[in-house]
Write a structure and sequence with these properties.
four-stranded antiparallel β-sheet
């Protein structure tokens, strides 16, 4: 049996059309191509960057100029970063292997990845290899004009074996969130020359529930220092932690900041499927819109409208009530807002139709797209005949918006 090769697939809509590419391999020809000797004509594939591993984490960043960066883990456990430059080059121009290039620690197998900041000043987070001293602690890579630097948060609690990871930036600072071995949410903020500041959010915020041991986590931030962190509690109900900033007044010119905890089940949000991935986008007004899979593995949206909370059973109500396909077991979930934040796209792995002949596999990438107050679904996997999504160890899915929506996943061939 041929050994499986794992690579990163980019699925994108440009100029109104969807397409995909394998960013680890590209089509090319050499003087000894088969057709040179009268053999069959066809594309020759050449590897242009290290292959991924089955359990690789995945993170991506982009800009309106269509600059793109993708980060993943290769078989030797080093973090790899790939760079795309827009026209006139219009191609993936190279990669970095951070362990060999700057001596960064190797990553824990299956470590989640998170990226924040702007291209030219990106910060990439992951968890160090648990087999070495200080393992499963937070590692921060920083992009500077003179090159990349690396710092480990050595005094932070060790992460759980399946810890999620999120990173955000506000005007006040830069923050990363993960879950430790006690299932507590940990916040690590980078203070530059002063190093790290670490906070046990679960212990320090009054009324904060302990996350489920399977809980995923996501976060968003904006403005002076507004932060939203989401996870599932032990009943798989979604919880919001909100860090708010109160503007100063004449009586209290310094203003104030505070954390508030809110169980979204109070507003009618249904329980999530155990271990459901969470995704959040912010509207143009800075209002959060949270997405996750309910117990039936259907996509749900819980959003703040400026006055209160709305719950939208997106998956059930899509396509004028016909409903979108449910998600496969263990499916990841990603959401991205359009350029003007008036439209949202949600991506997940659709469940197989076991009644099909032959039976389908769990490898159909699905899109749910908002049109005003309506949602429509699209099976990108079948429409584009996409390479199979790695499902033995479910691939993460990440998405961003540059010249259009772009989705990334780990493929197995």
């Amino acid at each position: 049996m041929a050994e499986k090769v794992y690579s990163i697939i980019e699925v994108a809509r440009q100029n109104g059309k969807w397409g995909y590419s394998d960013i680890n391999f590209s089509a090319g020809r050499t003087p000894d191509s088969p057709e040179a000797d009268g053999g069959p004509v066809g594309p020759m594939w050449r590897q242009v960057s290290p292959a991924a591993i089955a359990s690789s984490g995945l993170a991506a960043a982009g800009s309106v100029e269509d600059l793109r960066r993708v980060y993943y883990q290769e078989p030797a456990r080093s973090l790899v970063g790939m760079a795309y430059e827009p026209p006139p080059d219009g191609r993936w121009v190279g990669y970095r292997v951070f362990t060999t290039e700057i001596g960064a620690p190797s990553a824990e197998v299956g470590s989640a990845l998170a990226v924040t900041g702007q291209i030219g000043g990106l910060r990439v987070y992951y968890l160090a290899d648990g087999q070495v001293e200080g393992g499963r602690r937070l590692v921060r890579l920083e992009e500077r004009s003179e090159g990349w630097t690396c710092a480990m948060c050595a005094d932070s609690p060790r992460a759980s074996l399946i810890s999620p990871l999120a990173a955000i930036t506000t005007e006040q600072g830069e923050y990363a969130y993960y879950v430790d071995a006690r299932s507590h949410v940990i916040e690590a903020s980078w203070l530059g020359v002063e190093g790290w500041s670490v906070k046990d959010v679960t212990s320090d915020v009054d009324g904060c529930p302990v996350p489920s041991s399977l809980s995923r986590l996501t976060a968003a931030g904006y403005g002076s220092d507004f932060r939203f962190v989401y996870f599932l509690d032990e009943n798989n109900s979604p919880v919001q932690l909100e860090h708010t900033v109160v503007v100063g007044t004449k009586k209290k010119p310094e203003g104030s900041v505070a954390w508030q905890v809110r169980s979204l089940s109070v507003y009618g949000a249904p329980a999530a499927a155990a271990g459901s991935r969470l995704a959040v986008v912010l509207t143009a007004d800075g209002h959060p819109q949270l997405y996750y899979l309910d117990a039936d593995r259907m996509v749900v949206e819980v959003g703040f409208n400026g006055r209160g909370w709305d719950v939208d059973h997106v998956g059930v109500d899509a396509d004028e009530g016909a409903g979108a396909p449910s998600a496969a077991d263990g499916s990841s979930l990603a959401a991205v807002a359009g350029a003007d934040r008036s439209a949202t796209q949600v991506y997940y792995l659709g469940a197989a139709d076991r009644g099909a002949e032959p039976p389908d596999s769990d490898n159909n990438l699905m899109e749910l797209r908002r049109h005003g107050d309506k949602w429509t679904s699209r099976c990108l996997g079948a429409e584009l005949d996409l390479p199979d999504v790695a499902t033995a160890v479910p691939s993460p899915i990440t998405a961003l918006y540059t010249s259009g929506p772009r989705v990334y996943y780990v493929s197995e061939e």
